[in-house]
Amino acid sequence: MTSPDPSPGSSSTAPTATGSTTSDADADADAVPRVTELWVAPERHAPMEPRRCVEVEAGAGVVGDRWHGIRHRHVTLQSADALLEAAEALGSPVPASATRRTVTVSHGTVPTDPGARVSVGGVELEVVRVAAPCALMERSMGPGGAAALRRRGGSVLRALSSGPIAVGDPVEGLLTAPTPSRGAGPARRPGPSTP
Length: 195
Known about the structure:
Layout: H1 22-31, E1 35-40, E2 49-51, E3 53-57, E4 61-62, E5 75-79, H2 80-90, E6 103-105, E7 117-120, E8 123-130, H3 136-140, H4 145-149, E9 155-159, E10 163-166, E11 171-172
Parallel strand pairs: 5-6
Antiparallel strand pairs: 1-2, 1-6, 3-4, 3-10, 5-9, 7-8, 7-11, 8-9
């Protein structure tokens, strides 16, 4: 007979085969930034559509997204930490879909220096530039949305390799030091929303 799963927010400290506890393993897993949301729009200004997995083509971008085939704007990447900061500045929640970025990661700081490398689920990406907020943010987030996202909008990257990116995939190349605005747990991170 199996025991019930612990309730959300509770932690178990049962020993594992390596002598560590399951709470230690959970903490280690939480330390690795992971993809939490994926969004695409089939054409410019179209509503964002959620995905569990997307296919990335080297030199072309996300298959089925409005930017597929554009020279450099292949993937946009943002952090849930930055969305929390933007929400504090705006005074209301900032859903990941409202920013119109492709990939949202659980935590960490997305590099913005051109040439910086990030690996998302094994797909190699290179930073092209900062993803600056545009006038669409005023519609999707409300008045002040563009200002709240300034320096928090993530980066535009080019795809150096092909492959799938799925929700839950690990992300390498981010700065992962905790920030003061980062919550005590996943309950404060923006969750999936409907465009």
